[in-house]
Amino acid sequence: MRKVAFLLLWLYVFTIPWENSTNYGDGIGSATRIMGLVSMLGGITAVVIAGSVRRIVLFHIFLALLQSLIVASFFWSVDPEATVKTIRTFINVIWVVWLLWEFAPDESSQRWIMLAYITGSYISAFNTFLEMHRGTFHKSMERVTAIGWNPNGLAVVLALGIPMACYLGLDSQSLRWVRALVLPYLIVAPVAIALNASRGGSIAAIFALSALPLMLFRKGIGVKVMTVALAIAAVGVATAVVPDAAWQRLSTTSTEASRGNLNGRTKVWAAGVRAIEENPLVGVGSGAFERAASVNYTAHNSFISIFAELGLIGFLIFASLIVLCLCALWQMDPAASRLWWPMMLCLLTASCVGTWEARRPTWLVLGLLIAQAFSKIKNSGSEGSGELVHEAGLPEAADGQAQ
Questions:
Q1: Distance between CA 315 and CA 69 in Å, rounded?
Q2: What's the Cα-to-Cα distance from 342 to each of 91, 205, 208, 210, 220, rounded to whole Å?
Q3: What are the distances in angstroms from CA 298 to CA 116, 195, 355?
Q4: In this predicted structure, what is the pLDDT of residue 393?
Q5: Domain segments of the chain: what residues?
Q6: How far is CA 5 from CA 38, 48, 360, 367, 390, in A?
Q7: Is 140 left (phi over 0), alpha (psi -120 to 50) or beta?
Q8: Which residues contact 147 (CB under 8 A, 6 or more apart)?
Q9: Which of 7, 181, 231, 390 has its C-alpha lying 20 to 30 A from 113's C-alpha?
Q10: Angle at 262 between CA 258 and CA 266, to 5 degrees
Q11: Does residue 127 contact residue 148 with C-beta atoms inside 8 Å?
Q12: pLDDT digit string, tens, across residues 290-330
């Protein structure tokens, strides 16, 4: 049953990068929501049958505290309806942290999860190319994005897959077919990100791409030549297919950051600060930012959003989760840290210009980081377990892991 639960988790992660492209109505939601519920039920069934569950760590305790505060904020929320919606959303998105912890406890299974995310990201990238072919632009002639997506969000979703592709594609322990599958992503993703013409997303992508030179450290000349060829191919394809208007928009990134208002974000942030000053301790209630700040936009900054909605208490809990991830990252071996530092910088950059605290990719990344950090600590001193697959096929779940 644990193998079935892992397979359901794999399918769930596979749908995350293209979740906005499917919606079956308010009562059903996206394919990702459906797979999330199925994966959750499969995971619960597996641990009930096994009669044991893996012991959680401090990160999970702080995550439970954050969820509890979100639920409790309903009682003082200035927008109870929005708070109820956020409670449901947050419960749906954080389940992936426990599922990863329980069913992807070793490096082999974690590599499978990364492969699922990259494979799913190809779908959104190709949907972006399809919209470009159709001549469909997002609100203006500057930006092309996959159907159902905001360009800023999709750019970050695609960027998060880049370090994973580097990790799997440049590792000699990965199977040949895996490298053949993931290495083209280093061409596809940057081009699709450029088509989205997201300034914040492009900065996040730069941090994600920093994984490439980091992982080339101590690689052979053949790998380095191949990587340079991939980079040249990505530049060539982007130059050929990305419209001039998109390049012009991206070229204003530094000017907008230094002298502009970040496309209206600074005004929203100022309204958020005022909301914090009025309700500093417990906030205005989860999901109630727009009403409290008297704006028609989300906070476009996860830290301001958390502080305004959950107050100082919620901000400290959320900050503690980030600090715990950074501490876990600090203890990783150099090979793994070359994956996770770019991933964290990419995610934190996105969180500074977007509202990412209630999105699935955020908790997928943080949950996978914690799972891999503890698998590295657990296996330190033992032989590596770097194969993507076991001889029998799918990676085996650790039956003796429960405490």
A1: 11
A2: 27, 9, 5, 6, 22
A3: 29, 24, 7
A4: 36
A5: 64-103+261-380
A6: 9, 12, 19, 17, 17
A7: beta
A8: 21, 127, 131, 136
A9: 231
A10: 100
A11: no
A12: 999 999 889 999 999 999 999 999 999 999 999 999 999 99
CB-hemisphere CA count at 13 Å for 230?
25
Q: How many CA atoms lie within 13 A of 175 on its CB side?
A: 13
> 167-204 burial string, b = 16+ CB within 10 Å, else e?
bbbbbeebeeebbebbbebbbbbbbbbbbbbbbbbbbb
Q: Give the pLDDT confidence score for residue 378 in this predicted structure.
A: 57
* 3-state SS record for the chain: CHHHHHHHHHHHHHHHHHHHHCCCCCCCCCHHHHHHHHHHHHHHHHHHHHCCCCCCCHHHHHHHHHHHHHHHHHHHCCCHHHHHHHHHHHHHHHHHHHHHHHHCCCHHHHHHHHHHHHHHHHHHHHHHHHHHHHCCCCCCCCCCCCCCCCHHHHHHHHHHHHHHHHHHHCCCCCCHHHHHHHCCHHHHHHHHHHHHCCHHHHHHHHHHHCHHHHHCCCCCHHHHHHHHHHHHHHHHHHHHHCCHHHHHHHHCHHHHHHHCCCCCHHHHHHHHHHHHHHCCCCCCCCCCHHHHHCCCCCCCCHHHHHHHHHHHHHHHHHHHHHHHHHHHHHCCCHHHHHHHHHHHHHHHHHHHHCCCCCCHHHHHHHHHHHHHHHHHHHHCCCCCCCCCCECCECCCCCCCCCC
> Tell me: the pLDDT tens digits for 367-388?
999 999 998 665 544 333 334 4
C-alpha torsion 337→342→348→350, nearest 10:
-150
